[in-house]
Design brief:
Chain lengths: 244, 273
């Protein structure tokens, strides 16, 4: 592990869902801890239901943790994402933390190129520049030009996912959370994604990801955590396993 | 200028990055109509540039709260402050009728579900927008016409119909005229009371897209009331859930929909088709 200060320090993170209609609790994971440094790629492993996606959503704060800390070194100061104000989380999502899911969630009747350009427009880019960039990334992920002005709700699952990736990765973030982003992608788009992730990693973006086929990103992975066994494996020193 | 908004009590927080500024702060708002307690000790904070969604069943108090934000009514108790440039009006509920009207005309826009509440149906569409400008003191015909045209254009209203009366327009077009009227003076706060209810889904999508563009390009802060969870989920950054005049939960929109904490919110989210 690097001696530098981590970008994200997860300490004893615990998530439980309370389901009132069933009068029951569902325990997702308990006491998860790890550090993540700039430019590091961490793979989350585990069987179905181990809590991989839940962990990502808890870092993103779609899910509220019930215990533990998520210390994040933001450009505006250190903050515990587990207890941060909603408005601060919204700000960090706009400027520093990205989340890529398997599904495109976009407003209806908005063209693919406008959906992809939106993060740039929100960041202050002009319309022409944002559209140029959007078209570039749609092209990189293999979306045909005749679809750029069409509404993605009519696209196949794979094409929608390409739009989703182009939008999510158009702006470099400091921390990127990936929830099975290669699901439903064809070979060309998968290769484009790996190239983009390698590029972002090289720029210092820290990445935590869940992949159905981890082999797709094997060359990028620095460490992995198995949520079943709670063992961290360092890919550069595969013999060195430490319990978390 | 900074307002003492009592934020920790309103927004779960430990240390804050403190870059986002609250535009609106309401504290301890209570209102009773006859035997009905419409609002019970409601606190609300809305930050500059965000879309705050308010959801809840009919009679939960969401539209009443919006009317309070538009100073159409006065609660029995409570404090309401807006952070506006070069102004400090104190508790806005202490303002008289004229001052309220002027403040709303200049700084707060509203779009009602029912266009009859927001528009003069037998005046021209451009005249409806110009009326808002007249209240704010504009008197030059050329300026009124130009500003009305600009606001209608920004609301994606077809300019070829700017002299048509709202009564001759479709529901979607009437909402665009309301929107143009509401944004004509570039308000700090735009209040939207079920703005797409009753519109067919394709028109609804276009109106929502227009609102999103306005929020992005003009940085207008919006409070959106809707019983349609899909509309709120698409539009809102944060959400307040109301029931029986109380705020039972508030949070980031995706958190409220994916990990609701209150039994009523869980019921509401699970009931969505």
């Amino acid at each position: 592990m690097s001696a530098s200060t981590p970008l994200l320090r997860v300490e004893g993170l615990t998530k439980t869902f309370r389901m009132y209609h069933l009068d029951s609790m569902l325990h997702a994971f308990e006491g998860v801890s790890f550090d993540l440094h700039e430019g590091e790629f961490l793979l989350l492993r585990g069987h179905n239901g181990a809590g991989k996606s839940t962990l990502l959503r808890t870092i993103w704060r779609s899910y509220l943790p019930v215990g533990g800390h998520l210390w994040y070194r933001s450009q505006l100061g250190d903050i515990d994402l587990a207890t941060a104000a909603d408005v601060d989380i919204a700000l960090l999502r706009r400027e520093e933390i990205g989340f890529v899911t398997q599904f495109l969630n976009a407003r209806p009747r908005v063209a693919a190129q406008d959906i992809v350009a939106e993060p740039l427009r929100l960041a202050g880019a002009g319309q022409a520049e944002a559209l140029d960039q959007a078209r570039h990334w749609l092209d990189q992920f293999g979306v045909r030009p005749e679809l750029w002005r069409a509404y993605p709700s009519t696209f196949s699952g794979g094409e929608q996912q390409k739009v989703n990736l182009a939008r999510a990765l158009i702006l470099p973030q400091r921390l990127l959370l990936l929830d099975e982003p290669t699901a439903s992608l064809d070979v060309g788009a998968r290769a484009a994604l790996v190239r983009r992730l390698a590029d972002l990693k090289g720029q210092g973006v820290a990445i935590v990801g869940v992949f159905h086929h981890p082999g797709d990103v094997a060359q990028l992975i620095d460490r992995e955590i198995n949520l079943n066994t709670r063992v961290v494996s360092d890919h550069s020193e595969r013999e060195d396993h430490v319990a978390v | 200028m900074s307002l003492d908004l009592g934020l920790p009590a309103l927004d779960r927080a430990a240390p804050r990055l403190m870059r986002a500024e609250p535009l609106l702060a309401m504290r301890d708002i209570s209102k009773t109509y006859g035997d009905v307690r419409a609002l019970r000790h409601v606190d609300a904070v809305v930050y500059s540039g965000e879309v705050m969604g308010i959801v809840g069943e009919s009679g939960s108090g969401k539209s009443t709260l919006l009317r309070m934000m538009n100073l159409e009514d006065t609660p029995e108790s409570g404090d309401y402050r807006l952070r506006l440039p070069q102004r400090d009006d104190g508790n806005l509920f202490d303002l008289g009728r004229y001052d309220r009207r002027m403040l709303c005309a200049r700084h707060i826009g509203i779009v009602y579900q029912n266009p009859h509440l927001g528009l003069l149906m037998r005046h021209s569409s451009s005249g409806n927008v110009a009326e808002r400008l007249l209240i704010a003191g504009e008197r030059s015909f050329d300026v009124l016409r130009a500003k009305a045209r600009e606001a209608l254009d920004a609301s994606e209203f077809p300019l070829s119909r700017m002299d048509a009366r709202p009564i001759e327009l479709s529901g979607g077009m009437q909402q665009r005229v309301q929107l143009a009227k509401a944004i004509a003076l570039e308000p700090a706060l735009l209040l939207l009371d079920e703005p797409t209810t009753g519109l067919d889904v394709s028109v609804q999508a276009l109106v929502l897209d227009t609102l999103k563009r306005l929020q992005r390009d003009r940085k207008i802060t919006m409070v959106l009331v809707s019983h349609d969870l899909g509309v709120i989920r698409t539009m809102a950054d944060r959400v307040m859930v109301m029931r029986h005049g109380e705020v039972v939960e508030q949070g980031l929109a995706d958190q409220v929909f994916q990990d609701p904490q209150h039994p009523y919110t869980q019921q509401l989210v699970h009931a969505k088709l």
